[in-house]
Automatic annotation (TrEMBL):
Transmembrane segments: none annotated. GO terms for molecular function: 2 iron, 2 sulfur cluster binding; metal ion binding; monooxygenase activity; oxidoreductase activity, acting on paired donors, with incorporation or reduction of molecular oxygen. Residues 24-128 form the Rieske domain. It comes from the Bacteria. InterPro entries: Cholesterol_7-desaturase (IPR050584), Rieske_2Fe-2S (IPR017941), Rieske_2Fe-2S_sf (IPR036922), VanA_C_cat (IPR044043). The keyword Protease does not apply. This is Rieske domain-containing protein. Pfam families: Rieske, VanA_C. Keywords: 2Fe-2S, Iron, Iron-sulfur, Metal-binding, Oxidoreductase. It comes from Nocardia aurantia.
Length: 349
């Protein structure tokens, strides 16, 4: 069980290692927190308590009782609040102390002393807003189209990897690895093993794509920033893969801490009616196992890389997408670190 101490100021180095703020992040599958249940979880290098109220609403609190700092996750679920096991202090979903059984009328009562994050549930996952200013409300969120389109069927695959979050995102911004690491998969065996790439700007991010091949392998990826960072890619499927045309993936990598990543992959196809039923059946009975095999290849490779692997690189033209992503995050980390000092007094301890 993790027990992260107060990590201190939000420096640029810490942000680059544990993730950007002022945006939404995917936290975990919705099924991790059942009605009336709670779960301790680490995200962006800090410990949190997720619990689902009796009415089904999910709440997310910093996992520290405001009285003595004991973990609220060791406490008792009381429907719409949590009672700390240490001294019984009760905290509701907004982080407000609603009762101090040992001293009714105590000055702690009625004060919002625990940080509470705004949460949403989308396509089988819990999302949360991590803001620099604890007093400000959440920013806008535009969902990835495949997850919001009723005419698209999607399955969420979730895993936790022992590697930095940036490496998981960089892996997705590296289409060329599909022709080598995944060359024996059922969907990425075709196409050339040589290519040229380009970056194509969009109003929400950029495409990193092959200039001389399309619709054959893992030939392009789009990096999107719509209140949450995500990537979209499509891989052509043979007829044996069922109806629906290309097979798509929406991918998100959320930092657990500086060394671990929660990865979310929604596999999707645009299908309706009976074709949706055929695709869903085929996916569960045949394709899902094959897709997990591909993910395992990525996991094994990234987890085997040395902690300082990015300090000994010799990059070339295929790595333009990786370089673009790093520069974007480094610049954002520096900008956020500068603003974070303004809210230091309010940042959770």
């Amino acid at each position: 069980m993790s027990n992260h101490p107060n990590p201190g100021p939000l420096t640029a180095e810490r942000l680059f290692a544990t993730g950007m703020r002022d945006q939404w992040h995917a936290i975990c599958p919705s099924g991790f927190v059942e009605r009336g249940g709670m779960r301790r979880i680490t995200r962006l290098g800090e410990d949190w308590l997720l619990y689902r109220q009796s009415d089904g609403t999910v709440r997310m609190l910093a996992d520290r009782c405001p009285h003595r700092g004991a973990p609220l996750s060791q406490g008792q679920h009381l429907g719409d609040r949590i009672a700390c096991a240490y001294h019984g202090v009760q905290v509701d979903g907004t982080g407000t102390v609603v009762a101090v059984p040992g001293l009714p009328g105590c000055s702690l009562e009625g004060r919002q002393l625990v940080r509470s994050l705004p949460v949403r549930e989308v396509a089988g996952a819990i999302l949360a807003w991590f803001g620099l200013d604890p007093e400000a409300g959440p920013g806008p969120l535009e969902l990835p189209e495949p997850l919001a389109d009723e005419g698209t069927a999607a399955f969420l695959c979730y895993a936790e990897w022992e590697s930095p979050w940036r490496w998981a995102m960089e892996n997705l911004l590296d289409p060329m690895h599909g022709a080598f690491l995944h060359r024996e998969s059922h969907s990425m065996f075709g196409g050339d093993t040589t290519a040229r790439f380009r970056i194509r700007e969009t109003d929400r991010g950029f495409f990193f794509e092959k200039t001389d091949q399309r619709g054959v392998n893992f030939d392009w990826v789009e990096f999107c920033r719509t209140g949450i960072d995500w990537v979209d890619l499509q891989i052509p499927y043979p007829a044996s893969g069922g109806p629906g045309g290309p097979f798509g993936i929406v991918g998100i990598g959320t930092p657990i801490d500086a060394e671990r990543t929660a990865v979310f992959f929604w596999r999707y196809r645009k299908v309706t009616g009976w074709e949706r039923d055929v695709w869903q059946f085929l996916y569960r009975t045949t394709l899902e196992e094959r897709h997990w095999h591909v993910l395992e290849q990525d996991r094994v490779m990234l987890e085997a890389m040395a902690p300082d692997a990015d300090q000994a690189e010799n990059l070339y033209q295929h790595d333009l997408g990786v370089l673009r992503l790093r520069r974007l995050y480094k610049a954002q980390a520096e900008e956020q670190a500068e603003r974070a000092g303004k809210f230091a007094a309010n940042y959770p301890r």
